[in-house]
Each structure stands twice: as structure tokens, then as C-alpha cells.
């Protein structure tokens, strides 16, 4: 589509007209003395320019042109995760699918990390590629091939063919970046090569539910379609992130894969073409203050074990459900996501020391890590309760209960009609604050089995005011703990 450009009044296409005020015959135009400038003007002149930094790194930032087949993963992300968009420029993939065109043309970004032509970019830029062409800032272009890629972190490594002595940039320390530090993004938004934008680091360790290892840097440096795979620089000219995603419809909210994660993956991508991860074989959830109180713990951060997979490394080492993992190999674990990322970066077959709390007592367990199965089980939304006659629990917690329908027992993995089905949760109630939802099945209360709705309602009605009832609930995605505070 041709865009119409509107020139300022008095301007002529192809020319620049500058109108200067007339000078008196005896006057000579001289720069104003510094002392006559306003304080704000003097401050602005003192600000450093980013031009030297841009000049030192932009030659290593490349444009990645890809002909690819649309993947099923793209369709899934577009339909299931409206929170963010991966910004691979070019023809819209969904429009392409509607017209049933098997090949699409797209443009992304990347950066050279080796003089012989190794380039880092995003996996979603090159996934399904049938042809890749990389263009440099100096006008040269090279055919390229995929060396390795990791869909779970959206990182890919490609090799330029017949390339040598190319300009490079190096990966920096993303852990050293502070919120508020200046950053610089360079890429090819909308095909506009070598576009530069600046901003600050807005946040760290963002989980945008793109995958199991989310640990994104958030920035307000302008990034757009075509920036995918491009570098995010610190002021030393080091790459601290790979620009990967933006909030759909948002402004100034972009996400980058941190460079330290990329450095950990690079050896495997270059050598094996894929990433093999270690595995504990457990289901986990975050520990919070309410659950810590219910479990009688002195810590408020960690990962609660909610499930032990059959014949898993953790199970063979003696890890149990309701254990709270607080460290692995001396590295503190603050959440379930942090534990998942820490384990994934370890070598399968190695032995790790897991520090955990069990029944309020701290202990250490040696676990020989396994290899993570190459299977992705994407989460599903909790299913709402089925229509049935309701039986309320006491109004004190704002939760209605019903006996479990025998038809759902097999789907939920329950014993014959065991448990209490939550059918309604009142907004603002203690039940809602405990993150209970309709469709959950409560199978344990204070570590004792719940036979039916009547039994759970009776237990809640007799619970002392100010106490906390520890509930184990079942969803299609697994078993979880909830701490219900009794008002």
C-alpha cells in the first residue's frame, strides 16, 4: 500500500528549504555564549550522544529474510495467548492460512556473534524455513542455514554460507542489568533496516506464559514487527537480550530473552542442534504466605511439590508430595518457575542437592537428575462446574459445594465419587482470596480425605475463627494446594 506523505507548508518534494531571519548589514551570526543559555538548555547539551555506541555495533545487526511454512505452533499461540505477540514481520500468518498458501515471506532481525557467520535470532523467525537470506548493514547478503534451535526459549542459531571476517558483537551479563538502566534496540521493524530505538529496562524475570522457561527482560525501547531476533544492547555495546515479543495492542512493552540464558544454551545449539534438559519429574506450585502458614513453615518462598511422576528422579530419591523445595545446589529457589529454570540448565545424569522442608523440618536430598521428556503438555483453563443441585458451604467463606458427579470421576482421576465439587465462589470472599474456583474438586482438607460435600461443609463450619484450612484440589491440569482462611 502506498502511503501519502504530507510535507510541511512551504516545503518542496526533493528539496529542503530553510528560511533564516534577515540579518542587519552590520550584524554577524555567532553562536550564543554558553553563559547566555537557559539552564535546561545547558543540561541538554551535556547529555551524551548514543551515536558512537550505535556506530560501533550496528554493522553486526542483520536482516533475516525467510521463506517458511506456517506452523501449527503459530496457530496455537495466536489463538491461545492474546497477552503477547511475537513480532515476525511480513505477511500475516493467519491471513496466509485463510488463503491456504503453504509458503509465507517474512522478515526478522539477528546479530553476528562469530566472524565466520554465526547469527543469533528467534526460533519463531526461522521455524519451518525453506530458504533463509541474511542481509548486512553494508549491503552484502548471504544464504544461511539453521544450526540449532530451541522452541521452548525461542532461540535459534543460524550459519551464513561462505562468510568470513564479519563484524561481531558479544553477549553481555543480563544479570547485571538493573531496572532503570538504559538499553538500545537495533533491528528491522517493518523492513526499515538498521532502525535504532532507546529506552530503559522496565522489569526483570517476566513470565508472559509463552513457555515453561519464561524469564524475560521487559523494556520500553520501541520494538515492532520485524524486530524479532534483534539485539538489546547495554551502554557498553554488549547484547543483554534478544527482542522476542510485545504485548498485543500495547505501547512501550516489549520482552527480550536474557543473554545469560542464551549463553547457557549456545554450546548445545552449536554442537547438537537442540537443547537437552535435566528433569526432576515433579509437579510444583509457588509457595505463598498463606500456604506457608498452613504448612507451618518459617519461609514464604519456594516450590511446593504437588505431584511425583511415576519412576521419576525425584521419586526415586525420596521426594514426597507437600515437600517445599527452597534451594538446589545452594541456589535459592523463590518460586516454581525459578526451580524449573534452574533444573533445566543442569546436565542430565548429574547429581544435585535439593534442600526442602518436610513437616516443618529442613533437610537435604540427593537427586540424580534425569533427561526431560520431549513432550509439551500445554495448560488448559479450569473447567467450570456442571449444572447440578448446589449445596452451599457455610456463608462464612463464600463457597458453594456439591457432591462429585460419578461421570467426572474417571476424567479427574478420582476414586468413586470422592471429594467435594466447588460450584460457586462469591467475589471478594475468603474462598476467592484463596484462589478457589468453580470446577475444582476438593479431595483433602487438613491432609485428611474429603468424602463428599457435606463432610467439607461440616469441617469448614467447625473451623475456629482466624484459622487456616489447607485444601488439596484437583484440576484437569493437576493437583494443587490452597490455603483457606476462616474469617
Comma- or semicolon-separated keywords:
Pdz3 Domain, Thrombin, subunit H, 29 strands, 34% strand, 3 domains, disordered N terminus, alpha+beta, 487 residues, six-stranded antiparallel barrel, seven-stranded antiparallel beta sheet, elongated
What is the share of helical residues? Answer: 10-25%
Q: How large a portion of the residues is in β-strands, by DSSP E?
A: 25-35%
| Major sheet attributes | 7 strands, antiparallel
Distance between the termini: 62 Å
Assign an overall shape: elongated
Number of domains: 3
Spans where pLDDT lies below 50 across 5 or more residues = 1-30, 72-83, 91-101, 375-392
Counting DSSP E segments of at least 2 residues, the number of strands comes to 29
Q: Which architecture of the largest domain would the CATH scheme give at its second level?
A: Beta Barrel
Tally of individual helices: 12
Mean pLDDT: 79
If you consult CATH, what is the topology of the largest domain?
Thrombin, subunit H
The CATH class of the largest domain: Mainly Beta
Which secondary-structure class do the elements indicate? alpha+beta
Please state the CA-atom Rg, rounded to the nearest Å: 28 Å
Task: Write a structural description.
This protein has three domains: 224 residues, Thrombin, subunit H; 94 residues, PDZ domain (Pdz3 Domain), CATH 2.30.42.10; 95 residues, PDZ domain (Pdz3 Domain). The protein is built from twelve helices and 29 strands. A hairpin with a 2-residue loop joins β20 and β21. It is elongated, with a radius of gyration of 28 Å. The chain starts with 38 loop residues before the first helix and ends with a strand. The relative contact order is 0.08. The N terminus is likely disordered.
Amino acid at each position: 500500500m502506498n502511503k501519502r506523505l504530507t510535507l510541511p507548508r512551504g516545503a518542496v518534494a526533493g528539496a529542503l528549504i530553510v528560511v533564516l531571519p534577515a540579518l542587519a548589514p552590520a550584524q554577524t551570526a555567532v553562536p550564543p555564549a554558553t553563559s547566555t543559555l537557559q539552564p535546561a538548555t545547558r543540561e541538554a547539551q551535556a547529555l551524551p550522544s548514543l551515536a558512537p555506541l550505535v556506530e560501533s555495533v550496528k554493522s553486526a545487526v542483520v536482516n533475516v529474510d525467510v521463506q517458511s511454512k506456517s506452523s501449527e505452533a503459530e496457530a496455537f499461540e495466536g489463538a491461545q495467548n492474546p497477552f503477547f505477540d511475537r513480532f515476525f514481520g511480513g505477511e500475516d500468518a493467519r491471513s496466509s492460512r485463510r488463503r491456504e498458501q503453504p509458503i509465507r515471506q517474512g522478515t526478522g532481525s539477528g546479530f553476528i556473534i562469530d566472524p565466520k557467520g554465526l547469527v543469533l535470532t528467534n526460533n519463531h523467525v526461522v521455524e519451518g524455513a525453506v530458504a533463509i537470506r541474511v542481509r548486512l548493514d553494508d549491503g552484502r547478503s548471504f544464504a544461511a542455514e539453521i544450526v540449532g534451535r530451541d522452541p521452548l526459549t525461542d532461540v535459534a542459531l543460524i550459519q551464513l554460507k561462505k562468510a568470513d571476517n564479519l563484524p561481531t558483537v558479544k553477549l553481555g551479563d543480563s544479570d547485571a542489568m538493573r531496572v532503570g538502566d538504559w538499553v538500545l534496540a537495533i533491528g528491522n521493524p517493518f523492513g526499515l533496516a538498521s532502525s535504532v530505538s532507546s529506552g530503559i529496562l522496565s522489569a526483570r524475570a517476566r513470565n508472559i506464559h509463552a513457555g515453561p522457561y519464561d524469564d524475560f527482560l521487559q523494556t520500553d525501547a520501541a520494538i515492532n514487527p520485524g524486530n524479532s531476533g534483534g539485539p538489546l544492547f547495554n551502554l557498553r555495546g554488549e547484547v543483554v537480550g534478544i527482542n522476542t515479543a510485545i504485548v498485543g495492542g500495547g505501547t512501550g512493552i516489549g520482552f527480550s530473552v536474557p543473554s545469560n540464558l542464551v549463553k547457557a544454551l549456545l554450546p548445545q545449539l552449536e554442537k547438537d542442534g537442540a537443547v537437552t534438559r535435566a528433569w526432576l519429574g515433579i509437579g510444583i506450585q509457588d509457595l505463598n504466605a498463606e500456604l506457608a502458614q498452613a504448612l507451618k513453615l518459617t519461609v514464604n518462598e519456594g516450590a511446593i511439590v504437588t505431584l511425583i511422576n511415576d519412576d521419576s528422579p525425584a521419586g526415586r530419591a525420596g521426594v514426597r508430595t507437600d515437600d517445599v523445595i527452597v534451594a538446589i545446589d545452594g541456589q535459592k529457589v523463590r518460586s516454581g518457575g525459578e526451580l524449573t529454570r534452574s533444573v533445566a540448565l543442569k546436565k542430565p545424569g548429574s547429581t544435585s542437592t535439593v534442600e526442602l522442608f518436610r513437616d516443618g523440618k529442613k533437610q537435604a536430598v540427593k537427586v540424580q537428575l534425569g533427561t526431560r521428556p520431549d513432550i509439551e503438555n500445554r495448560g488448559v483453563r479450569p473447567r467450570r462446574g456442571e449444572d447440578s443441585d448446589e449445596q452451599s458451604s457455610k456463608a462464612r467463606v463464600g463457597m458453594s459445594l456439591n457432591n462429585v458427579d460419578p461421570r467426572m470421576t474417571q476424567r479427574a482421576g478420582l476414586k468413586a465419587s470422592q471429594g467435594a465439587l466447588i460450584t460457586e465462589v462469591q467475589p471478594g470472599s475468603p474462598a476467592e482470596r484463596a484462589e478457589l474456583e468453580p470446577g475444582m474438586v476438593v479431595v483433602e482438607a487438613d491432609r485428611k480425605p474429603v468424602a463428599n460435600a457435606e463432610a467439607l461443609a461440616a469441617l469448614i463450619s467447625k473451623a475456629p475463627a482466624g484459622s487456616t484450612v489447607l485444601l488439596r484440589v484437583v484440576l484437569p491440569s493437576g493437583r494443587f494446594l490452597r490455603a483457606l482462611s476462616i474469617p
